[in-house]
Amino acid sequence: MAPSEEHQKYIASAFEPLMEYQKQITSAFEPFMEYQKKLHKTLDKLSALSNEMPKNTRNAISLLAEKGWFVYFDLQTISAQKLMEITTEISNQKFTDDMLMESLEGRFEEIKESITAEFPKRKPIIIQALKAHTRGDYYLSIPVLLAQTDGICYEKTEKYLFRGEKPSTATCVNEKIAGDALMEAILLPLAEKTSINMNEKDRKENTNFDPNILNRHMILHGESLDYGTKENSFKALSLLYYVSQALSENT
Predict the structure, then answer these.
(1) What contacts 190, CB < 8 A, 6 or more positions away?
(2) For 60, which of 31, 74, 90, 226 is 20 to 30 Å away at the CA?
(3) What angle do CA 242, 248, 250 make, to 5 degrees?
(4) CB–CB of 156/209 below 8 Å?
(5) pTM for the full predicted model
(6) Please, are residues 168 and 160 in contact by the beta-carbon 8 Å criterion?
(7) Separation CA 72–CA 188 (nearest Å)
(8) For residues 91 and 215, is the Cβ–Cβ distance under 8 A?
(9) Torsion angle, CA of 94/133/241/171, rounded to 10 degrees?
(10) What is the C-alpha radius of gyration for the chain, rounded to an integer number of angstroms?
(11) Each residue of 88-116: pLDDT tens digit?
């Protein structure tokens, strides 16, 4: 027999407090559920960022190196978001040689102090090279900066950057990164051959090689006679600073 209308009202009325309590619980949990949704969205974004960052950084580092510029990103001092922003701009080629020179010029004293503090025995040589750079004697500053870069590589790894089919430092880098995709991207110039460390054979085989890009072999072997520019001197400085940071005891 179906319950009477009065019986139904009684049952409904008996459940009213329970239904009200359920509404209160649901209402109380709404902010938490909203927060959880936002958290999931944030974690999804971070996951995507984490997966994309090594590729993005590698593209940026490779593009800069092919143009003769070298930048070391210290992961202890730069946020993931900032790194992504910078490398995205570089990958999209939203930078110019003038912008990079201006950046190095603004940090000139800081860079000088950093390199000479890390390698005090090389300080007299580096100081003289940087004085030549400041005077505009770029034909003098560039060979010395390149030579000191190679010397620092050997001092730290017993391997030379400018030798062999690929940089001799490649083995040391592969041991250092131990499967870290982001560090592998940042240390790419120490593991792969770029325009600056191509020898005569490499240059002949590489149809994309630009003879106007800074090349250590052409300079130190007397092939290049017009390398003495402010831009090239800053590029040589960027490489020296990059190597000193990448091979620092603190990295």
Answers:
(1) 153, 161, 167, 169, 170, 172, 173, 243, 246, 247
(2) 226
(3) 125
(4) no
(5) 0.76
(6) yes
(7) 10
(8) no
(9) 100
(10) 29
(11) 888 888 888 999 999 999 999 999 999 99
